[in-house]
Design goal:
By secondary structure, the protein is α+β, with helices and mostly antiparallel strands. It has ten helices and 19 strands. 43% of the residues are buried.
Length: 360
């Protein structure tokens, strides 16, 4: 664990608390807990004060928490709400924030019952906002996840052939990603061939890949908690002119967006660079999702690149750029890469094997 990065994250959070006259923050979202503490267990609640930092879990995770979160005082005795109640009394906390976008109504009622003498203040996506801008440690881990993903795609290419089932390719790709160093899949892989490739989220099925099929693969892994996400569309056996034309349209749309994306533009503007080109071919309604999304500890994070999104891109955010066109009854194409927003523009984290439609 590089403690300096976690000290800086806690400092930024405490600045936000002080700005709102809050004394502490209860955090129960495991992803946010990992971001702030380094603890990767699934049973966790943090109580972060202006000076104090407590990690509440149970005995199963005691050793793990000590190793992963040395900046936090570990508490493993008793129910979480009882521990929170005791800590609030011991440290005279009166104005405490909670995660408005994570805590359920029922959970809030229980918390109010335990902390009857405390003012509970809702904060919306406060830690998530901090997570948008990646620090050097996070960027190095995301870059490694992207490298593993790109190398694994290269290794799956000889395995893709007519007669294979979509599910076989998905399973083999998962094996390769883990063999290369991935911890686990970042999401359920998409492997959609032939007419099924017109389904943007067509998870792998028992369909057999046939000569002439387009095959869209959308896949990613987690490396030390950080996600990758990449999509490539290939053809199997042979390809028609309509498929080639569709592929070139999507590639051109992605390259046009990549040419302009950088710090200072909004998610809406980024999306528009690709969308206008596709709409100009009369296929705007066939590009039904946003151009991209942020990724880090989660595969879908802020910022979003999509119509109506006024959020401004800033340096050290990581986003995907993934235009797609989907024609029901025929097929579809999507090309997705990961990029790091820099001071000058962007850095490609994935970019191989897309210059032309691969025929396998």
């Amino acid at each position: 664990m590089n403690e300096d990065y976690f000290i800086k994250r806690l400092s930024k959070l405490r600045e936000k608390l002080m700005g709102k006259n809050l004394e502490a923050f209860i955090i129960a979202n495991p992803v946010n807990c990992r971001y702030l503490s380094g603890f990767s267990g699934s049973t966790v609640t943090l109580l972060i004060g202006l000076k104090e930092a407590f990690l509440i879990t149970d005995f199963r995770y005691a050793q793990q928490a000590q190793e992963e979160a040395p900046l936090f005082t570990l508490i493993t005795s008793g129910p979480t709400r009882s521990s929170l109640e005791k800590l609030c009394k011991d440290y005279s906390f009166k104005n405490i924030a909670f995660e408005q976008n994570y805590l359920t109504v029922y959970g809030l009622e229980l918390l109010k019952g335990s902390l009857s003498d405390v003012n509970l203040i809702p904060l919306y996506r406060t830690v998530e906002e901090l997570r948008v801008i990646k620090d050097p440690l996070e960027i190095s881990l995301i870059r490694k996840a992207a490298q593993i993903t790109e190398e694994s795609f290269e290794k799956i290419l000889p395995f893709i052939k007519a007669g294979r089932k979509e599910r076989e390719i998905s399973i083999e790709l998962e094996y390769l990603l883990k063999k290369e160093g991935g911890e686990k899949t970042a999401f359920d892989f998409i492997a959609a061939s032939g007419k099924r490739s017109s389904m943007p989220h067509g998870t792998a099925s028992s369909k057999i890949i046939e000569p002439g099929d387009l095959l869209t693969l959308d896949f990613g892994i987690k490396y030390q908690g950080y996600c990758s996400d990449m999509t490539r569309t290939v053809a199997v056996g042979f390809v028609g002119e309509r498929e080639k034309d569709l592929y070139q349209l999507v590639l051109k749309a992605q390259l046009e967006a990549l040419k302009h994306i950088g710090p200072g533009i909004t998610g809406e503007t980024a999306d528009d660079f690709a969308r206008k080109l596709i709409a100009g071919r009369g296929l705007g309604s066939n590009f039904g999702h946003g151009l991209g999304h942020g990724l880090g500890l989660e595969v879908h994070e802020e910022p979003r690149l999509a119509p109506g999104i006024k959020t401004i891109l800033k340096p050290n955010a990581v986003v995907t750029v993934e235009p797609g066109v989907y024609l029901p009854g025929f097929g579809g194409v999507r090309i997705e890469d990961m990029v790091l927003i820099t001071d000058e523009g962007l850095e490609m984290l994935t970019q191989k094997h897309k210059e032309e439609l691969l025929i396998l």
